[in-house]
TrEMBL record:
<comment type="pathway">
    <text>Purine metabolism; IMP biosynthesis via de novo pathway; N(1)-(5-phospho-D-ribosyl)glycinamide from 5-phospho-alpha-D-ribose 1-diphosphate: step 2/2.</text>
</comment>
<comment type="similarity">
    <text>Belongs to the GARS family.</text>
</comment>
<dbReference type="Pfam" id="PF02843">
    <property type="entry name" value="GARS_C"/>
</dbReference>
<keyword id="KW-0436">Ligase</keyword>
<dbReference type="InterPro" id="IPR037123">
    <property type="entry name" value="PRibGlycinamide_synth_C_sf"/>
</dbReference>
<dbReference type="InterPro" id="IPR020562">
    <property type="entry name" value="PRibGlycinamide_synth_N"/>
</dbReference>
<feature type="domain" description="ATP-grasp">
    <location>
        <begin position="109"/>
        <end position="311"/>
    </location>
</feature>
<dbReference type="InterPro" id="IPR000115">
    <property type="entry name" value="PRibGlycinamide_synth"/>
</dbReference>
<dbReference type="Pfam" id="PF02844">
    <property type="entry name" value="GARS_N"/>
</dbReference>
<keyword id="KW-0658">Purine biosynthesis</keyword>
<dbReference type="InterPro" id="IPR013815">
    <property type="entry name" value="ATP_grasp_subdomain_1"/>
</dbReference>
<keyword id="KW-0547">Nucleotide-binding</keyword>
<dbReference type="InterPro" id="IPR016185">
    <property type="entry name" value="PreATP-grasp_dom_sf"/>
</dbReference>
<keyword id="KW-0067">ATP-binding</keyword>
<dbReference type="InterPro" id="IPR020561">
    <property type="entry name" value="PRibGlycinamid_synth_ATP-grasp"/>
</dbReference>
<protein>
    <recommendedName>
        <fullName>Phosphoribosylamine--glycine ligase</fullName>
        <ecNumber>6.3.4.13</ecNumber>
    </recommendedName>
</protein>
<dbReference type="InterPro" id="IPR020560">
    <property type="entry name" value="PRibGlycinamide_synth_C-dom"/>
</dbReference>
Length: 419
């Protein structure tokens, strides 16, 4: 079986790493891939960017790809799945209509309200004045969200009304036509990634991300600085509740709108101190870095699971098998991230890290003349497994400490909250 993985991050390295472990997978093409996917068995990088839909389609058709797995949201929102499906190519990832779930906060809010899925109370606005009036009426803290893809910069949790005013003005100034203003939900976040074939929904083990750059969850938001799985905040009974009250009703609501959703339903959830669970957001793809902590625990071959989504046979699949214990992923970033950072620094210690029993997933790296160089803000995701979370944490940091490059930065408290 020939697979193609679209994307170049840590998530895509993890997807390719999982796929090629299966004897069923004979070839894996990463478009465009990174310095890590370049070194995987059975794998080649193909220099086609994720937004070059025509080139991706042509490549997949010429190479007779059996399954395309789309990593990031951008090609999904551009309609890559629709174009591949039109060519008769199997693809894991929702159509453009399904990707609205991530691309439009107001669309999703309406869908959730219609489906009776618990979410933060809020409203959509097309002008700053009524948005401001609504925020004033609701009071701070309050959350202001751009209605569109914003690379992680579209959500402002305003602690004061003055901050909300600035946020509302700035988002409209940036050109967003709509914004959502919603109630602030206190609690602890958890990411539940679920597989969906359009009818059946199967949740994966829950994970927790660490979105802020600094230890103790301080400082600027990032794409995610580390993750662990399973997250004890969402034990099996809670996942059962999430499945029944959130995931399945969402899948049903999508189907009711005529959307044939085959891909990941990624629910970003807030769990309150009393155990109430509400949806903060949906993403239409695997999480990054959650994937680097979730997939290494999955024992069922990934290609089998993804194919079942695409073939709409998830309901007939045997229950997913998982390795016992915990996984933790620590992201190693370039100095300055999430602000400006340098590229092109040589990365050392990768073999030494591996010797510590960790898996180093590459994110922003490239292989050049035999050297692995930094090529992005989030550079690596180092993952360790352990019989429990504290063992996994101890192992992962032994691995991370072997790695060297100029200006490297990582959080030292990944997973500590759950101990
Ligand atoms: P989102 O992209 O909607 O997940 O928002 C990004 C981050 O903002 C989330 O991971 C939360 O930390 C925070 N956030 C979003 N919505 C809310 C809310 N209603 N209440 C509290 N925090 C929120
Ligand atoms: N880890 C956050 C995301 O994938 O959006």
């Amino acid at each position: 079986m020939k697979v193609a993985v679209i994307g170049s991050g840590g998530r895509e390295h993890t997807l390719a790493w999982s796929l090629v472990r299966s004897p069923e997978v004979s070839h894996c093409y990463c478009l465009p891939g990174n310095g890590g996917t370049a070194g995987l068995p059975k794998t080649v990088n193909v220099a086609i960017a994720v937004d070059q839909l025509g080139e991706i389609c042509e490549f997949c058709q010429t190479e007779k790809i059996d399954l395309v797995v789309v990593g990031p949201e951008l090609p999904l929102t551009l309609g890559l799945t629709d174009q591949l499906q039109a060519l008769g190519i199997k693809v894991f990832g929702p159509t453009k209509a399904g990707a609205e779930l991530e691309a439009s906060k107001s669309w999703t809010k309406q869908l959730l309200v219609e489906a009776g899925v618990p979410t933060a109370f809020g409203e959509t606005f097309t002008n700053p004045e009524p948005a401001q009036a609504y925020a004033t009426k609701m009071g701070a803290p309050i959350v202001v969200k751009a209605d569109g893809l914003a690379a992680g910069k579209g959500v402002i949790v305003a602690q004061t009304l003055a901050e909300a005013t600035t946020a509302i003005a700035e988002l409209f100034d940036q050109g967003f036509a709509k914004i959502v203003v919603e109630e602030f939900l206190p609690g602890e976040e958890v990411s539940v990634l679920a597989l969906c074939d359009g009818k059946t929904v199967i949740p994966l083990l829950p994970a927790q991300d660490h979105k802020r750059i600094g230890e103790g969850d301080q400082g600027l938001n990032t794409g995610g600085m580390g993750a662990y799985c399973p997250a004890p905040i969402a034990p099996p009974a809670v996942i059962d509740q999430v499945q029944k009250q959130i995931l399945q009703p969402t899948a049903n609501a999508l189907a009711k709108r005529g959307i044939d959703y085959r891909g990941v339903l990624y629910a970003g959830l807030m769990v309150s101190s009393t155990g109430e669970i509400k949806v903060l957001e949906y993403n239409c793809r695997f999480g990054d870095p959650e994937t680097q902590a979730v997939l290494p625990l999955l024992a069922t071959p990934l290609e089998k699971v993804l194919m079942a989504c695409v073939d709409q046979t998830l309901g007939q699949l045997e229950p997913l098998q998982w390795h016992a214990g915990s996984a933790v992923c620590v992201v190693v970033a370039a100095g300055g991230y999430p602000g400006s950072y340098r590229k092109g620094d040589e990365i050392g210690g990768l073999a030494e890290a591996k010797a510590q029993d960790v898996t180093v997933f590459h994110a922003g790296t490239e292989l050049k003349e035999g050297k692995v160089l930094t090529n992005g803000g989030r550079v690596l995701g180092v993952t360790a497994l352990g019989e429990d979370l504290s063992t996994a944490i101890a192992t992962v940091y032994r691995g991370v400490e072997q790695i060297t490059f100029d200006g490297m930065y990582y959080r030292r408290d990944i997973g500590h909250k759950a101990l």
